[in-house]
Design goal:
The protein is of the alpha/beta class. The chain has two helices and eleven strands.
Length: 180
Amino acid sequence: MLANEHRSINIIQGEFHVSDREGDMLTTILGSCVAACVFDPVRKIGGINHFLLPGTDPRDGQNIKYGAYAMEQLINALLRAGASRNRLEAKVFGGARVVQSLSNIGQNNADFALKFLKDEGIRVTSQSLGGNQGRRVRFWPTTGRAQVLLLDSTFADPVKPAAVRRPPPVAEVAGEVDLF
């Protein structure tokens, strides 16, 4: 790959990716899932994960759809690639309540991610969590820059007919995140 070549890498549920290649942009789309964008500003390396459920898989714990394993995989990959744990910073996205008639798994995912990062001593520099809108996230791993686009929220809620739905409130964005 040439130095000025740009690459967009899409991350789906249960995946993570780490890069130190200038020009890489990591992207994902979130509803109730959560993505952590973790970055070492000195080494100029970062990565993103996308997990579906908080905690660990009750069967074996080794399932990347679960937050604990997804977070461990991302952090360990960063450390193996030369990042330093004491310099890691995180930006956290997602955790929306996209189906109103179901439990609020999005809030559980968001709470889990923030607690995990705090317990690991990784500073959260910004976040866009909760609400009822999905998000498209872009993350540049060599700079730590992130953008979030709040998506139109058409609930998949069979209880409310479309005619009575009202526009949802916009989720709060904390820290430095570009809206696009």
